[in-house]
Amino acid sequence: MTAPPVCGRTIFWSVLIATAFASIGQADEPAPVAVPLHARIDQFVEADPGPIAPLASDEEFLRRISLDLTGLPPTPDEVRAFIADADGEKRTKTVDQLLADPRYARHMATVFDVMLMERRAASAVSDDEWKNYLVASFRQNKPYNVLAKELLSADGSDSATRPAARFFLDRAVEPNLLTRDVGRIFFGRDMQCAQCHDHPLIDDYKQADYQGLLAFMQGLSAFTAPAPDGKLYVAERIGSEIAFESVFVKGVKHATGPRIPGGVELVEPAFPPGEEYTIAPADGVRPIPKFSRRATLAETVTNGGNHWFNDNVANRLWMVLMGRGLVQPPDLHHSSNPPTNPALLRLLSDEFVRLGYDMRTFLREIALTKAYQRSIDLPLEASPGEIAAQRQQLAAQKAELEQVEEAQSAAHDAGVTAWQQAKEASAPSKAAVAAALAVATEADKTRATALAEFAKSKADLAAKQDVANAVAEASVKAQAAAAKLPQDVEFAAAVQKVNERNAQLAAEVAALAKAIEEKQSGVISAEVQVVVTRQGLDAARTNAAPLIEAIRVADEAMSAARKQKEAAATTLAAVENSEIAVGRLSEQVALAAEAANAVTALSASQAQLVASQQAAQQAASVMTQADAALAASKQQLDVVAQQRAVAEEEAAKRKTIADLLASAVSQATLAANETPGEASLTETVKLLQSKADEAAALAAATSSAVAVAVNAEQQATVAMTAADQARQAAAAELAPRSTAVEQAQTALTTAEAAVVSGRAAAEAAAAKVVEDRVSSFRAAALKPLTPEQLCFALLRVTGQYENFWKAEEAALIAAAPLPPEATSEQIAARRAEIEQKVYDKLKVHIPTFASIYAAGGGQPQGDFFATADQALFTANGGPILAWLGPGGGNLIERMNAQADPKLIAEDLYVTTLARRPSDTELAETAAYLAARPEEKLACVQELIWALLTSAEFRFNH
Q: What does the angle CA 863 – CA 864 – CA 865 come to, to the nearest 5 degrees?
């Protein structure tokens, strides 16, 4: 047996198997390569043999890239110029021009707004502040890791990044909601179903993962600053370990500190009790811990080494242009839902990090790929031999990967066991630390109480001393006055009271002073206790440190083993999916052949039916002739039989007459003989004899006629018998031919049904193959326009956008014209200023489109759906109907002013669909206009409306 030929897919999977695990845990900086990223992407995509779509036409490409990078379709002038441009690099130049356009930043801000906030209503941060922050981020090409770090760490206190705090604030800083959404949006893992137990359907999603991420969020809350500020901020308190148990395994307790998604449990710095905060919690005060779990999360996952974070954003940015992710849906990354091309996702993820998370450069490379530029039309051609070889190769690769996956799974199990053992070994030490911490915390509380009491006593003494000093001074002065008024008894009595009060206060001051000494002694004792308990705590922590380090080492080993296991399972699942795809392709090829054979069989059945019908028709014709001949012979027999009967009747009559005359002659002769000589009798006899002879002759003649008639009847009977036999023979020939027609008709019906079912099966199989090829990016996906894209596409096509742009541009030229020597930066800034003003004027329409074409706020926004409300809106929507009025040189006005139907159709299709019309569309447009020449404006509006409501306009293809 000879080995199958080596193909691109063999190389692809061999490389993948060899490198799937080696990259984990290694540096994220691959060696520089000379081949551009877009070319390497195409190498991975094209490694898989089988059907692949050709490149899209220039018109399809221009509309696609314009919508994907700016959210707007191209203008008709841009379409015509691009079609006419013979430069082989025009696609690259167009990509660069669109990336430099201010509308690129606007569109990407919209994309990220929907991705991050999922159309939630703005509350703590205004919608304008938030979107301006995103627009500014994309205009300055802020690296994604920097943007993500701001989103994950902003608390609202820094005005520069306050808008970024909206991600947390507009989720009410609710820990579980944040845990789910941070997991989904930043790590591609929707772990909500792992909150109370390991995920029942996804083996990779563990309850410990959810709780470990929740530990970063548990200390967070919304904080409203006191007046006059009154703003909402994210507050953070120190957190502790989270204790949890599975609802399916009651009684088995677990605990985790903050666990980096895709990484290990965080080892937090230890602070003495009472010293954990930079700003301690208090009424009306936002606490700030010395160690922020949230800031640590933001820092750790954005430093380039977190594969979950990197894979997620690479997949989502790929999805922005390609219409679907390598992992789909994008928030369900796990080994049972592998990337359609794991090696490609690894390439994209690593290269994005190598590019410094530069989104503009990364999107440029994707846009330059042939994968992005392919047509949506896929030719379904495949060699059965190639398919068989491919299946054989995949089976071998699957067998190899199953062994790898089994080994990695065993290694992971061993890592889990070692980690659990390390945790168990540390339990007494951790319990000792907890106990020592509780004692030290209590000592710290006691010290705080003693200090508070000491401070209060000092304050009381100071206050009492102030009063006592004042009374003492009054007493001295009163005694001096009394000495000068010895006779004033009443005054002397008053002085005595002052002296008594002075003595009383002096006693109270003395008592307070003694109490302070006691309080101070208590403070000293408490301070000593704090020192002692902290020493105990430090000792406990020191004793536990090696064990905690052992846990960390075991955790790292377990985490690495888990990554290896999941990578092996992912690669295996991808190969299994490829097997399914190749099986579908094989099935499609077989079903297409069966459908073709069914069509051939149908043609044969149709020919057989025609032949059978012709033969039956010939037999029926002979049968008809035989029926006619039999009927004629029967009719002839009836005639001759009647003639025979008439002849026989006549013969009988003649014979009777002849017999009577003969008898009369005999009687007359006897009478004449008896009377001889009677002349009259003799004459009578002669006369009778003459009559008798005449009657006898007539009787003989009629007897001959009877013989002739009988003979004719016999001949007619023979003829009728022959005709009947001929009819029976014709009937015998017609019956099987009629049966043959029925059989041929049944065969034709069966063949027709086989063609219908064969085509349906082939089409269903072809749809699966197309889906597979689209998911592997060998054909372009059909992408519905987002509500924002649809809104602004309608505004541009109807001329509204350009008219607003011209107006804002003219106003700025009048108010602050650029100098003739303006730099490219100044020109770009001016265009950005115009764009902002135009957007501010037109953004009022976005909520209307979002309410009709988007999912509800807080829900995933990626799914396409069609509703009756959408149909009613396009048919009766006020904005659309208003935009269809002529004016400002827009499409409607141009078409209405144009006399040539061909030029009208050309402008219509180039403006609305960014392509030239076909010959059929030219003819249909001309015919529609010609049918109602007196209603041209209405016809023009109807033609535009028809295209604006078409599926071709609704989708980006």
A: 120
